[in-house]
Amino acid sequence: MKAVILAGGYGTRISEETGVVPKPLIEIGGRPILWHIMKIYASHGISDFVVCCGYKGSLIKDYFLNYAHRNSDFTIDLSTNSIEVARPASEPWRVTLVDTGLQSMTGGRIKRIAPHIGDATFCLTYGDGVSDIDIGKLIAFHRQQGVAATVTAVKQPGRFGTLDLSGDASRVNGFREKSVLDGQTINGGFFVLEPSVFDLIDGDATTWEEEPLKHLAATGQLSVYRHDGFWQNMDTLRDKQVLQDMWDGGAAPWHVWT
C-alpha cells in the first residue's frame, strides 16, 4: 500500500520558517517533520510514498536526492571526482515526488497523483501532523467498514486552562489545566481511501475537505476511526516548539520506530 503525503501548501501561519523552506521540511530534532511522518508509516510496514509537492517543492526533491549523502560518512577524492561511502545510511523507502502545482488546492493535489496510485487502496495524510496512531488498525478498520473513505478523528488539545465559575459569580471555585477534554474533535488526517474518490475531485480548484468529503459523508461512504492517543499538528511556531520540547525531553509519543 502507498501513503500519499500532502506537502505543497504555503504554510502561511508559520511564515517565519516557510519563508526559507516548505513547511514539511521544518525540522524537529534535526529532521524534517515530513521524515517523522514517513517513519510513522514505515514502522507499520508502509514504505512506498507519494509526496505531493508545490510551494518550494524543489527543496523537497533536493532533500531526497541528497538523502543518502546527507546521512552517510564519505570521502571525496577531488582528483578523480569519486566518492567513497564509509558509513552508508538510508531508509528502505520508495519515494515518488510529484509536482502538483503551486496554486492547487488539497483536492487538486490528490487528483494529480491518481496515475501513481492505480486501482489500489491508499493512505493519505497531511505533511505537518504526527501521531502515535496504529496505521495497521486504521487500515483494518477501513476494510471492515466497506466504504470509500475513512478519516481519523482526534481530539485537539485545549489551549487554555478551564475555570470553574459555578456558584458565586465573583469567585473561582476551581481550575483545570488545558487538556484534550477541553478540545474539539477534528479531522486529524491519516485517511484510508479507495481509488473511487478520485472521481469526486473536479480539478485543481477543488478542496478535499469541502465537496469530496461532504459528498462521501452525505452518501454514507465516509467512516470515522477514532484515535484517542497522541496527535499534534505543526501549524504555528508555538506548535513547533511543543513538538521540539517533547523530542528534546525524550518523550515524543509519535516516536514509535526503533
Topology:
Blueprint: E1 2-7, H1 15-18, E2 27-28, E3 31-32, H2 33-42, E4 48-53, H3 57-65, H4 67-70, E5 73-77, E6 82-87, E7 94-99, H5 106-112, E8 122-126, E9 129-131, H6 135-145, E10 149-155, E11 162-164, E12 174-176, E13 185-187, E14 191-193, H7 211-218, E15 222-226, E16 231-233, H8 237-248
Parallel strand pairs: 1-4, 1-8, 4-7, 10-15
Antiparallel strand pairs: 2-3, 5-6, 8-14, 9-16, 10-13, 10-14, 11-12
Note down, in words, how this protein is organized.
It is a single chain. With 258 residues, the chain is of the alpha/beta class. The protein has a single domain, classed as Spore Coat Polysaccharide Biosynthesis Protein SpsA, Chain A, CATH 3.90.550. 25% of the residues lie in helices and 26% in strands. The chain contains eight helices and 16 strands. A hairpin with a 4-residue loop joins strand 5 (73-77) and strand 6.
Average pLDDT works out at 91
Gap between N and C termini, in Å? 21 Å
Tally the helices: 8
CA radius of gyration is: 20 Å
CATH top-level class: Alpha Beta
Structural class: alpha/beta
